[in-house]
Amino acid sequence: MRGPVFPVLFIYLGISGTVLARLLLMPFAKALQARRGYSDQFVTDLAVALPLGAFILVVIVGMMLLAD
User: Fold this and answer.
1) pLDDT at residue 2, as a whole number
2) Taking Cα atoms as reference points, which of 45, 41, 43, 64 lies closest to residue 53?
3) Hey, CA dihedral for 8, 14, 17, 21, is it positive or negative?
4) Torsion from C-alpha of 40, 46, 49, 55, nearest 10 degrees
5) CA angle 24, 25, 26 (to 5 degrees)
6) Domains held by the chain: number
């Protein structure tokens, strides 16, 4: 039972972390764009790359925990 439950749990934790990071980053990225004059590409990169990085880290840590 442990085998199928934990990978699914880690994937859903990663997805929820990605959604939360994106919701928190979008207002911050738009404020930076307005104040500093950053391009739309910067805002897109910030809003996509950081949440995906968080997802990858959660999945990697989850797989490391499964290996124990």
Assistant:
1) 60
2) 45
3) negative
4) -140
5) 100
6) 1
Kindly report, residue by residue over 26-66, the tens digit of the pLDDT.
888 888 888 988 888 888 887 788 888 878 887 888 778 77
Chain segment 2-33, per-residue pLDDT in tens? 667 777 777 787 788 778 877 888 888 888 88
The H helix count followed by the E strand count for the chain is 2, 0
Task: Report the candidate in 29, 53, 51 with the shortest Cα–Cα distance to residue 41.
Answer: 29
Long-range contacts of 23-31 (CB under 8 A, 24+ apart): 25/50, 25/51
Q: Which domain range does residue 15 map to?
A: 2-67
Its pTM stands at: 0.58
